[in-house]
What we know:
The strands form 5 sheets. Strands 1, 2, 3, 4, 5, 19, 20, 21 and 22 form a 9-stranded mixed β-sheet that branches. The chain has a 4-stranded parallel β-sheet with strand order 7-6-11-12. The chain contains 15 helices and 22 strands. The chain is globular. Among the domains are: 186-278, no CATH class; 322-392, Dna Ligase, domain 1 (2-Layer Sandwich), CATH 3.30.1490. It is of the alpha+beta class and 457 residues long. This is ATP-grasp domain-containing protein. It comes from Tenacibaculum singaporense.
Amino acid sequence: xxxxxxxxxxxxxxxxxxxxxxxxxxxxxxxxxxxxxxxxxxxxxxxxxxxxxxxxxxxxxxxxxxxxxxxxxxxxxxxxxxxxxxxxxxxxxxxxxxxxxxxxxxxxxxxxxxxxxxxxxxxxxxxxxxxxxxxxxxxxxxxxxxxxxxxxxxxxxxxxxxxxxxxxxxxxxxxxxxxxxxxxxxxxxxxxxxxxxxxxxxxxxxxxxxxxxxxxxxxxxxxxxxxxxxxxxxxxxxxxxxxxxxxxxxxxxxxxxxxxxxxxxxxxxxxxxxxxxxxxxxxxxxxxxxxxxxxxxxxxxxxxxxxxxxxxxxxxxxxxxxxxxxxxxxxxxxxxxxxxxxxxxxxxxxxxxxxxxxxxxxxxxxxxxxxxxxxxxxxxxxxxxxxxxxxxxxxxxxxxxxxxxxxxxxxxxxxxxxxxxxxxxxxxxxxxxxxxxxxxxxxxxxxxxxxxxxxxx
Length: 457
């Protein structure tokens, strides 16, 4: 599908939205309003006061990728590494054989996972830049600003027919989470109290209370919708007790554990309960294995060897740009065998080198925005590090959006689309003005966030 070089974030509805704005004087919303959940007040990133509108064919494309690509990625350890613990320990776990064994125990349970695809919408459609997996997926926060954003536009305020539909990322995740717990954890029936333990750094009483209130509202709401009850609990992770195969916290049976901080660790007994199907963990050890960005290169390689169904091979090759693990090796690029480091040096503007285990735009090197010397240093560093990938540079088409001065100008967009097992959770956007573009569009690096509404559904 060929797309115009410059289109509005408001799609074909641009003119009607511009004419129907209600009381909009700023391009960014005030995130310190009473109608916003206390946990998200004074949100650390700017949020656009205008929505991004997408058409049904975009929704269909995003949904297909979100539901299929993570499942295909999860087959990499089996199809490529043949479930060989020694090879998996070397590749994913820095030769820690014991950790790899634990990882494979978790992997063999074949559980569904939550994911977020980061995509660029290019002149050839959406292209997947990264696949993030596990519970620590940013982007769900924007959902909490929907009411404020709708209040600024007559089109949205009077949208009784739901012409502009917003998928609720937050409730979709909790629907998935509760569903997986009920399916996987033993001895849950209609009389059970289903409890989840939320591990987090205690960084202030008010924030902890607000976070738990927010979590509990979603948790209890989803449990009640299927006729169950329970609560979310937090405290010291070291106080979790292993009793007869179950995990208890102050005499409450815990059915699930989620960690809001990636640097928190669980005791081995907690994983023992998980292996016994007496506990659900949202971030088991195999997450380290399946979320490694090098899997994108391996997945493409498997698709080129036609290891999947025809439609799956096509989806992989169409949606994931050329990706390779950075090594001093020969590769095939556009039908020719070439030395990879030399290819990167010769075609600087066509490639991006990134840390395969990084996040928030850290250690991402975009050749187009670097000097030749900086680029060669990045290539040399990546080759020595061995946990870097290179991707063909996917340039976002230009979208017209409001800048900080409330003037409509060209922006680049990165889309974050969510998949929760078999549930498509929706999408949000980060955008950066073209005149300040440095190739990395990330909230932590100054991008503006925006809510996405579906039209015509």
